[in-house]
Each structure stands twice: as C-alpha cells, then as structure tokens.
Here is the input.
Amino acid sequence: METSEVTSWEILCSDGHPIFGNTHRSQTEIVGGLICSHGFKGYKDYGFLPMLCKVAAERGLVALRFNFSHSGMTNRIDSFEHSDLFEKDRWSRQVNDLRDVVSCEFDNDGLEGQPYVMFGHSRGGVTSTLAAGRIWGEHFYNRFWPGTYGYRGCAALITAAAPDYACNLDDMAKHQLRTEGRLLSPSGRTGQDLYVGRDWLDEIERDPELYDPVLAAAHVKCPTLIIHGSGDTTVPVECAHNLHRAATPNSRLEIIEGASHTFDCPNPLPLDTPWDAVPAATRKLIDLTVSFAVEQCEKAREVSGGE
Here is the structure.
C-alpha cells in the first residue's frame, strides 16, 4: 500500500481550549475528506482510528482525526492530561468542535468546497449525527439554534456502534448527578477518576429534542451508513436498527457478525501493523467506511461538476 503523510495540528475551539488533531494525506488524487470523531473516553489515537485514516488517505481521502476540546486528552495518550475539562463536556461543545474542525482544518487546507464525510464511533457517532441533523434540518433546528450551521459540503454520514440516545443514565444516577453536581466515571484504561458534570444532563433536559440522535437522523438527507457489531455488549445492536429506521430511505445498515463495540480492535493498533494481522472485524469496518466515503464523495463531485 502507498504510505500516507501524517501531519499534526492544533486549533482553538469556540471556548478557547485546544483541539489536537492529525491529518492523513497521500499523493493520490483527492476525491474528498473523512472527518473522524472518537467516542466517550476515547481520543484521536484510539484503536482503529489511525489505521482507518491511513487507509482512507491511500484511497484519495484527506482524513482527519482529532480530540474533542473537552475530552481531557492531548497528544499524550497515557493519561487524561486535562481531566478537569472532561467534567465540563457537553453535546453542544462537541458539535461546535466538529464544526470548528471542518471550517478551520478541512476548508483551510486548500480543500474548500471539496465534499467530505463525517464518521463517528460510539458517542462520536451521536455527535456526528447531531451535527448532520443541523446541516440538513435547519428548518427544524433553527427554532432551537438560530442561524445557519453552514459547512454544506457534507456528502455523507457514517456511524459505528453509535447509541440511539443522548443519555443512558437511570433515574438513580440522574438524581445523584443533580444532587452532587458530578458523577464518577473512572477510566479503566488510565485508572484516573473522571467525572460527568451536571451541565451535561441539564443541557439534555432543557432541550431533549435538540439532542435526540434518532430525531436528528430523521432530518439527515445525505446518504448514511450505520455500522454495528452483533456482539456489542456496550451499545445494543438495536440502536443501529432504530437509527436506520429513522434515517430511511437514505440509510444503509451493516451488521458485522460477532463484532464487539470496538470491532475487535486492540488499543493501540500501530500504523505499521500488516493488514492481514488486523482483526477481521476491524478490517470489515474500515473497508465499509472507506468504500462508502469514497463512493459518496465521488458522487458529490459529479453533481457539483467535479470541482
């Protein structure tokens, strides 16, 4: 396979906190872009994300992966270096971060006007769906969020192991969060005590329709690919079916038999790992994602006259 070039970058989000990212780009003819969002307690270097971006670049996509500004993660992958920010994260912050990445990194990298595809794993899939809903459903979302959301080059949406809900807390956990102001959510990877802040729950409960991924999926008019593993014990596979039904007729559903929430991918998965040494479910996820993204970017370019 052709080797892609990886560059690092840092921008400031609308709240003034840094968003750390990497861009994968090869010398092949560019057909569009792939913007990758990580999941809850995830980060840009997690699991299959670097390999996904590498393969995407080799197929002509400029692929971006980034840390959400309030993920707590930097370029150091051994710890949540800014765990205090994790507690302040909210859906609206993540949607704004995704918008900032598109406008600051993708559009300003000589790619303005090029079609791109949004990809999100797990919670990142919800963020990408909410963002796509704002792009394609402005007539609905303007009553919540005045003003255009722009970035019209979104050619498609891809979710992987995404929930169909914004909040999965039971009543007892919600009560504890309201009462104590934060809820412990430790990291099994680093051993750190992380907390979900009350602002996250308050935002959802103020405008539940605004943060409903199923409702957002129903407003997405671009082609949508929903991928899930039948062996996912973190997010039920029924979530994929619910999102697919909401997004129909623009949606395609792919269930990978037996695949886990991370599509059986180890963390980390080094970029120099031979392709045949990558787990089969991970390869399937990457193949589905890249092929769909390339196909939809090429179609978008045809519609726009190839510009």
